[in-house]
Amino acid sequence: MIRIETPRALAAIVLFLVATAAADAQRIPSDALPKALRAEVERVRKLPKKAAALRLPVIVRAVRALADAHPKVAFGLAKWVAKTDPNYGPGQVAFAELALANKRKADATKAAKRALETATDDASRVAAARLLGETLDPALPELERIEGDGPALVLVAMGDVDVLLLKAVRERMQKWIHMPVVVQGGGVALPMSERNPWLSELDGFRRALEGAWDAGASEAARACGADRSDLQRDQVVARVYRAWLVAKEDWRGLSEFEAGMRTKFRPAWIADTMTRELASHIGAYARDGVRYVGITAGDMISTRSQRSVLGWGGANLGVASYAQFSPDVREEKPDWEKLVVRLTKQALCTSAEVLQLGRCRTSSCPMHLGRFPTFERFDRKRAQPCPNCEMKLQLAK
Question: b or e along 186-212 (b: 16 or more beta carbons within 10 Å of the residue's beta carbon)?
Answer without folding.
Answer: bebbbebbeebebbebbeebbebbeee
